[in-house]
Amino acid sequence: MTALKTWLNTHSTHILLLLVFISALFGLWLRLLPMEFLGDGPVQKLIFMDTWYSMRQIEQISAQYPGYAWFDPMTAFPTGKDVDWGPVFPFLCATVCVLFGAIARPENMIIASYVPPILFLLLIPVVWYLGKVSGDEKTGWIAAILLPIISGELLYRSLYGYLDHHSTETLFSMLFLTLIIALLITTQAIHTSWYTKKSIILAISAGVVYFLGLMNIQTMVLFAAVCALILLIHALVVRDKHHLFILFLHTTLFFATFTVLYLSLGLIHDGFSLSRYSLGHVLVVLAIPLELGLLTLFAHLFENKPPYYYIGAVVGSLAAGYAFIATLIPDIAAQMNNSMHYFFFFSYAESYINEMQMWEPVRAWYSYNLALFFALAGIVICIFRLIRSYQPALMAILVWGLVLIYATVMHVRYEYYATGAIVLFAAIALSTLYAMIAKSEQPEKRSKKMTDGITHQIPCRALGVVAILLLLIAAFSAQTVMTVADKQIGLISMTNDWADSLLWLSANSPDPGVSYDQIYKKTNFSYPKEAYGIISWWDYGHWITFLSKRIPVTSPFQDNVPPVARFLSAQSEDEAETNAKEVNGKYIITDFATVTSKFAALPLWAYGKDSISRYQETYYQQSQQAGRYDPVLVLKQPYFESTAVKLHLFDGSFVPGQGGSLLTIKESPMARGSYKLITEASQVSAADAQTIRLNQNQMTGSIQFTKPVTDVPALGHYRLIYESPTTVAEDETHQIQEVKIFERVKGCTIPGNGTIELPVITNQGRTFTWREQSVNGTFTLPYSTQNNPYEVRATGPYRILETGKTIEVAEDQIT
Questions:
Q1: Cα–Cα distance between 90 and 112 in angstroms, integer?
Q2: pLDDT at residue number 438
Q3: Chain mean pLDDT for the chain
Q4: Which has the closest alpha carbon to 535: 479, 602, 462, 482?
Q5: Can you tell me the mean pLDDT for 240-247?
Q6: What is the mean pLDDT of residues 97-110?
Q7: Is the CB of residue 739 less than 8 Å from the CB of residue 764?
Q8: Between the CA of residue 260 and those of 173, 217, 267, 291, what are the distances in Å?
Q9: Closest CA to 466 of 425, 514, 513, 433
Q10: Sign of torsion, CA 203 207 212 216?
Q11: How many other CB atoms are found less than 10 A from the CB of residue 233?
Q12: 3-state SS class at 231
């Protein structure tokens, strides 16, 4: 036994390295779980929305290597899009693709999809070092073992196929703060000179890493702010003019390194916007050495004064500095205020962007399970340790972690940033637990004979407890990740119906006259006259750009969302046409989600959040179970008359009203405001719904998506030209496919009165009858009955029901 313990002690580092290696392999396996799903279907798939645009950039860089497009006319029609983020991630992926000779689909997508999980592995030594300097070597090893196996947003965003900048974003931000922490530790040990070789390397490296992080995405400025906060707190604690002056010199070198690299690329945008590559980023980094210079000056001036002199001078100078900026450079002050509001207080209800939701406890548990509780304990441990003895590295990690955790609580999008901090805090708690148990295992007194020949007693119980806890965390995490890979990847990836639809559009629509791979300069670019836009909800814009190589009006970048939202929620065809003409939309793509789960976002973006209740609203009614109320989504007539619903649910055809429910509503108080309770409900006919006089507590509505309360008029300028194969809903009168594509046409206007109808068969073999009621003695017909180029076609002539007259319409009469 003694020999075994001696061997274990001698080879402990190798054993720990092996455990980290096993953990890394397990973490890599978890990240490769989506491979099978993403490779199944008509196209190779990627995860989520933004990844498709990253892949578009990777293809463009590969074709024009090493060029990078700062302006893209293949999105945000009719203006094109200024590319507001840097080339680091797509350039890295494109380089890998070029090196492997994978420059065509799907090979380039497969090769690039491996980059995020491989990049994640680089975080392991970073978190090991941070654990080591914040606690001890045990903390570092625990953090290195824990990081690869823990679930959460960082794991999801480093999955195979998650081609976005988040993996490099996390890597560069953590590496930058690691270098700053290392610089704090190193400069604190300098007493007889101004620098050492190591400190110079650290300062230059920090400048390089910050530059790379910024050229990946501008949110790197958040970590410049965290760095400034760390240095401020450090200065307030130490108040050592010699040490602070050394830090001032090194942050100046950091600033110089960054500025030379940044300006060597040329400023992409004028002004001082921090959301673009402007001079504003130089000023942000300049603020760090200026801060240190001011802190050093105050340390010199108040060297022999009580601490509150120094603290008061710092607080006063910060207030004066902000007042100075607000007075002389109000644009910068406004940016600071807007950034603070967006970062800390921006509400999900203002945008319906999923990433802006608050971090709920259930989601936090599924992300980090037991590690979450250990992280909370770790935060408390850090605070107590800092109260007992100031440690710069521990302070820096605590500040960094608390800022990111707060940001995550406010907006779930920051969770991938917070993962590293949560792992470190959990590792600190587990290491502390290990030390406590190990101490309890050691006998208080030993005879000299008992201790001879034994250098260390292996704490078996401590090792066992920590190992079991790590295995439990790994098991819970694996269960969560496997559930996500098995059941949720399909919900956040492109469906086969969407893939089929966009491939069809690519083959059956005219070329917009813009080359997909070419790099265009914004200054001399204008769209050719044959260019046109694709109108669809913003979620799907990148799919349209990548798969169909057509130009969406809006996309997840959210350019041009209001006119698209107004088009889709418009209450009349004239209003819809006004918005379609504004963006020169030729094709409209809708899906079932747009008119169901995503519908509320349409009026929100079109007219503001107060307008949602005009279209639909959730009320509550007494449940059969005493004391409970069930939510009921009530669809109001404006919902049925919106362009999106007319197109996707009704194929642009006239639909007679079916009547609905007459509801009496009462506002009832609750713990957090109030809710609307249905106190009475009765059926009402379509005719009565049009004439009934409602008081302020009454409304009419329907709970069935295909049954409008009153008549819904037809659309005369939009014809169905394709629908996807999957039927997602049906009733006795409607069969609804997942995705539909409509073409906007001028239509053929003919005189007539009454109701006209046309039998239609779709490319999937579904039949329906398109109907329209005359308006001012005319009909506007969107379908041709002769020379129709599409599989969706009329199976007979138009017929006016009242007279029996039939009408043939040629293709050139409607286009």
A1: 9
A2: 87
A3: 91
A4: 602
A5: 93
A6: 94
A7: no
A8: 20, 18, 12, 20
A9: 433
A10: positive
A11: 16
A12: helix
* Cis bond before residue 392 (omega within 30° of 0): no
pLDDT at residue 191, as a whole number? 82
The H or E element spanning position 768 is strand 767-773
708 in Cβ contact with 649 (< 8 Å): no
Task: Spell 29-43 as b/e; 16+ CB within 10 A means b.
Answer: ebbbbbbebbbebeb
Confidence band for 273, pLDDT divided at 50, 70 and 90: confident
Q: Residue 168 is which amino acid?
A: T
Q: Which amino acid is at 157?
A: R
3-state secondary structure 459-480: CHHHHHHHHHHHHHHHHHHHHH
Gap between the Cα atoms of 612 and 601, Å rounded: 8
In 3-state terms, what secondary structure has residue 755? strand
Return the structure tokens found at 440: 């309890």
- Residue written as token pair 């903390």: 139
Q: Where are the alpha helices (DSSP H) in 46-106?
A: 50-63, 88-99
**What DSSP character marks residue 363?**
H
3-class SS of residue 433: helix
Indicate the residue type of 550: R
What pLDDT digit, counting tens, does each position of 415-427 carry? 999 999 999 999 9
Q: Given the structure tokens 């209001």, which residue do they identify?
A: 562
User: Looking at residues 345-356, what average pLDDT do you find?
Assistant: 58
CB contact at 8 A, 16 and 470: no
- Tell which wins on pLDDT, 657 or 265: 657
User: Does the pLDDT at position 450 exceed 60?
Assistant: no
**Residue 88 burial (C-beta neighbours within 10 Å; 0-12, 13-18, 19+):** buried
DSSP string for residues in 673-693: EEEEEEEEEEEE-HHHHHHPP
What's the Rg (C-alpha) of the chain?
A: 32
Positive or negative, the Cα torsion across 73, 74, 79, 81? negative
